[in-house]
Design goal:
about 240 residues; alpha+beta; 9-stranded mixed beta sheet
Length: about 240
């Protein structure tokens, strides 16, 4: 039965891949939200926060376990006239990370932890079209932020943080990541073919747009994407 279920899931992934990417491409082409992209060289300070030693097991996929350059990216937007506070917005998203997600590209499925809550130690699998899923673990949870670290089998190695802050009558929402490719193939798809990079761009800018809607406000000046590339030599896993 397990083999049959795995086979059915594999078939579903294959069927979902072209349909999902076609819809994502259509949505991307008709996007009206302004995107402001800045790319520049980075340095050692772009390797991200330290992961608490309690999470260091054989499943954790740390930045140093990856291959290729470090990519430090931040997607940010300012939300005008929000109806939610920063804590309330992050609380709504943490209850169900699929609320702002573009489901044609990615969906979150909790594998460890209580439904409807998000706590340190919880685990998710981010389902994506194609032969790649993204297992992650919650390594930080604050009132207005939470952070995932990647686990073995993820396309990337590193961390990603979701946060919000109140800014007077406005609200700031940001997604910040510090990652390398999880394997040589991932590095090729990200750095050369650029499939993963554009998929991520669509996913997280859409996430910012939907966060604005969840907050009950509207985006001011679109979404800003700041990428810093640190060409640190990182050895590929065997």
């Amino acid at each position: 039965m397990a083999a049959l279920a795995n086979r059915a899931r594999a078939v579903g992934i294959v069927l979902r891949w072209p349909a999902g990417m076609a819809f994502a491409s259509w949505r991307y082409l008709w996007r009206i939200t302004p995107l402001h992209r800045l790319d520049e060289d980075g340095g050692p300070d772009d390797c991200g926060p330290t992961i608490d030693a309690t999470f260091h097991d054989d499943r954790l996929q740390r930045l140093e376990d990856g291959v290729g350059p470090v990519y430090h990216r931040c997607y940010g937007t300012t939300i005008e006239q929000p109806q939610l506070s920063a804590n309330e917005l992050i609380g709504r998203i943490a209850e169900d990370p699929n609320r702002p997600a573009p489901v044609e590209v990615a969906s979150f499925r909790k594998t460890v932890g209580e439904k409807g809550l998000l706590a340190v130690g919880d685990e998710f699998v981010v389902r994506m079209p194609g032969p790649w899923d993204g297992p992650v673990r919650v390594v930080h949870r604050g009132p207005d932020s939470y952070r995932f670290a990647t686990l073995r089998g993820h396309l990337e190695a590193g961390q990603i943080e979701f946060r919000a802050r109140d800014d007077g009558e406005q609200l700031r929402f940001e997604i910040e990541s510090w990652t390398t490719a999880g394997s040589r193939l991932s590095d090729l798809l990200y750095s050369r073919v650029r499939i993963i990079k554009e998929m991520q761009l669509h996913m997280w800018t859409h996430y910012c747009e939907r966060a604005g809607k969840l907050a009950g406000g509207r985006l001011r000046d679109g979404v800003h994407i700041h990428t810093r590339r640190y060409a640190r030599p990182v050895s590929a896993p065997p």
